[in-house]
């Protein structure tokens, strides 16, 4: 019986009923990764260690963990002890971390097994996976199309059924947008819910780790394991973590869902719009009530983000200097020349662009006009959300204005064109609130995503609403035909 | 944004831009700065900046010595090191 495209819940049942052993499951998963190498989902495989760990798993052992023996893929931005971690950059192409990120460690402590590290946009900067030093990931639905980004390798590996779930990180939509483009489910938790320790930082006040999986139920399983206070992350929330599976089946009758007035959905592609209207009807049938809400400053999210994120990136990426780890240029004249050459040869174009923008925004004379101004607008955006959540439980938008696009067709002439693709996802990072993307049908044979945004710490409501939708629809069962998707 | 400004920012960021790409980079930066410039139309007088979504003070923990010293393993990742130090080109003649 093939394990391809199975969910965690299904694999758990196969393992528990002894239809398959943990070692066999691992071999199958690794075999699928090899079979679909052309998708370029993985940068580094963990074959030997994964098989060793899986072989040692005793399934008769009494455990409450749903993840025991489950193969997972980790975005190559999480440090993994002894396993190369590159952030898809030349500058880290030889980096072997001496420790494991807390989010990954939590998943592994729950019994899951890491099969490999997934490809991504370089340092998570991109929405198409085209900025990876290791080459682009291909969308399993149509191979000449992008998988989305930055967690494109994780999304494609799940969509191709190689692993049931994977980790991702989301700074401006990097979990939700690739989940949408690949037809799977992806959750960005509340800022502070999952530890950032061991995640290679891009924009520290926006970065958050989360799960990508085939269903919201599986996302709940992963979030249960990933979440929790970590004294090593000073922005980790020291609060009790609810069981995200417990209330996932609650009826959603009477739930109030807000539609954001300022997002002019009439401007979108008519088929994307059509999908959105259909999903609205599904929720109405399930007892949801739709309310129009106004978030007057939300259209400023993209410029706000593209001031704050590059500023934090320019600061965070100053640690890559060719001295303590990573790539070092040869034939340098002096220390300053070593810094300049190592960074210039080690970083790709998009990363350089963002470092330069951030350096400019933080430099003397421009700090107030760009960086401080953006942080002031950020507060207004957060207040808009607080106000909206006084009258609704959730907000609903498409995840992305478009479905996946062809390689090289966007942003090559003008990077801003690609930045505008993040319009619907960016604001929840600025406000620190959770959001989920679930598949809601195909547009021209490519998946479209539906985004639900929740109030601070209300991942339970998001997962509940997403799960009820999935119990009443089949979109999450759609699979790409990997032989036909050329 | 002129070429001189681009050169200054590049130096501040310790980045060297390929001459053949400098025109394109300058144009890209101008477009991004124009995008960010849209924020100027929003009135933010009397609005406190929000630097993090969590407006809390970093927590304190007990000052306990831990044995998490992985010096050798950190030095292994260095492009050049000796037993105790990261090595760089000579700074003082």
Description:
The complex is a heterodimer of chains A (486) and B (93). By secondary structure, chain A is an alpha/beta fold. Helix content of chain A is 35%, strand content 13%. In chain A, helix 4 links the parallel strand 2 (71-75) and strand 3 (113-118). In chain A, helix 9 (301-316) packs across helix 11 (349-362). Chain A is globular, with a radius of gyration of 21 Å. The two termini of chain A are 26 Å apart. With 93 residues, chain B is an all-alpha fold. Chain B has a domain at 3-40: Histone, subunit A (Orthogonal Bundle). In chain B, 34% of the residues lie in helices and 0% in strands. Chain B is built from three helices and no strands. The longest helix of chain B has 16 residues, at 22-37. Chain B starts with a helix and ends in a 17-residue tail after the last helix. The mean pLDDT of chain B is 89.
Task: Using brief descriptors, characterize the structure shown.
heterodimer; A: Amidase signature (AS) enzymes; 15 helices; B: 93 residues; mainly alpha; Histone, subunit A; flat
Helix-and-strand structural type of chain B: mainly alpha
User: Which CATH class of chain A applies here?
Assistant: Alpha Beta
Count of domains of chain A: 1
SSE order of chain B, as H and E?
HHH
Q: Which structural class should the secondary elements of chain A be placed in?
A: alpha/beta
DSSP helix fraction of chain A: 25-40%
CATH third-level topology of chain A: Amidase signature (AS) enzymes
Q: Specify the overall morphology of chain A.
A: globular
Q: Spell the H/E element sequence of chain A.
A: HHEHEHEHEHEEHEHEHHHHEHHEEH
Whole-number mean pLDDT of chain A = 96
- The top-level CATH class of the domain at 3-40 in chain B is Mainly Alpha
Mean pLDDT of chain B: 89
**What count of helical segments of chain A does DSSP give?**
15
Low-confidence stretches of chain B: none
The number of helices of chain B is: 3
Q: Oligomerization state of this entry?
A: heterodimer
CA-to-CA gap between the ends of chain B? Answer: 39 Å
């Amino acid at each position: 019986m093939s394990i391809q495209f199975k969910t965690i819940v299904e694999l758990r049942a196969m393992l528990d009923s002894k239809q398959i052993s943990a070692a066999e499951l691992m071999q199958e998963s690794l075999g699928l990764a090899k079979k679909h190498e052309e998708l370029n989902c993985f940068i580094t495989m963990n074959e030997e260690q994964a098989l060793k760990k899986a072989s040692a798993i005793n399934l008769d052992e009494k455990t409450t963990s749903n993840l025991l023996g489950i193969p997972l893929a980790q975005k190559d931005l999480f440090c993994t002890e002894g396993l190369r971690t590159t952030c898809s950059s030349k500058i880290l192409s030889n980096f072997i971390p001496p420790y494991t990120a807390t989010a990954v460690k939590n998943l592994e402590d729950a019994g899951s097994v890491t099969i490999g590290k997934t490809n991504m946009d370089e340092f998570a900067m991109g929405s198409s996976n085209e900025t990876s030093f290791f080459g682009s990931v291909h969308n399993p639905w149509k191979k000449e199309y992008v998988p989305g980004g930055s967690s494109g390798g994780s999304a494609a590996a799940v969509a191709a059924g190689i692993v049931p779930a994977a980790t991702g990180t989301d700074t401006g939509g990097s979990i939700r947008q690739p989940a949408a483009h690949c037809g799977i489910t992806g959750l960005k938790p509340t800022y502070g819910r999952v530890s950032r320790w061991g995640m290679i930082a891009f924009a520290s006040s926006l970065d958050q780790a989360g799960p990508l999986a085939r269903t919201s139920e599986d996302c709940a399983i992963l979030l249960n394991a990933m979440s929790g206070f970590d004294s090593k992350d000073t922005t980790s929330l020291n609060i009790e973590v609810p069981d995200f599976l417990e209330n996932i089946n609650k009826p959603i009758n009477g739930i109030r869902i807000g539609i954001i007035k300022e997002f002019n959905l009439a401007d979108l592609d008519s088929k994307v719009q059509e999908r959105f209207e259909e999903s609205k009807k599904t929720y109405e049938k399930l007892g949801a009530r739709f309310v129009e809400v106004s978030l007057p400053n939300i259209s400023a999210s993209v410029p706000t983000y593209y001031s704050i994120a590059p500023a934090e990136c320019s600061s965070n990426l100053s640690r890559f200097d060719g001295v303590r780890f990573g790539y070092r240029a040869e034939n340098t004249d002096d220390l300053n020349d070593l810094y300049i050459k190592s960074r210039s040869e080690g970083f790709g174009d998009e990363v350089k662009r963002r470092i330069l923008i951030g350096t400019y925004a933080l430099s003397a004379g421009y700090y107030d006009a760009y960086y401080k101004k953006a942080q002031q607008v950020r507060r207004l955006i957060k207040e808009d959300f607080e106000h909206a959540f006084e009258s609704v439980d959730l907000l609903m938008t498409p995840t992305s204005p478009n479905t996946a696009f062809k390689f090289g067709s966007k942003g090559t002439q003008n990077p801003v064109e690609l930045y505008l693709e993040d319009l619907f996802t960016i604001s929840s990072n600025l406000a620190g609130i959770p959001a989920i993307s679930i598949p809601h049908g195909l547009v021209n044979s490519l998946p479209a995503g539906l985004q639900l945004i929740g109030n601070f710490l209300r991942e339970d409501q998001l997962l509940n609403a997403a799960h009820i939708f999935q119990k009443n629809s089949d979109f999450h069962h759609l699979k790409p035909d990997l032989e036909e998707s050329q | 944004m002129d070429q001189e400004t681009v050169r200054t920012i590049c130096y501040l960021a310790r980045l060297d831009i390929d001459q053949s790409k400098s025109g394109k980079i300058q144009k890209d930066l101008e477009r991004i700065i124009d995008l960010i410039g849209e924020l100027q139309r929003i009135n933010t007088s009397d609005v406190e900046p929000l630097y993090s979504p969590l407006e809390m003070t970093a927590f304190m923990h007990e000052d306990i010595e831990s044995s998490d010293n992985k010096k050798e393993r950190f030095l292994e990742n260095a492009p050049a090191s000796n037993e105790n130090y990261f090595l760089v080109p000579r700074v003082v003649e």
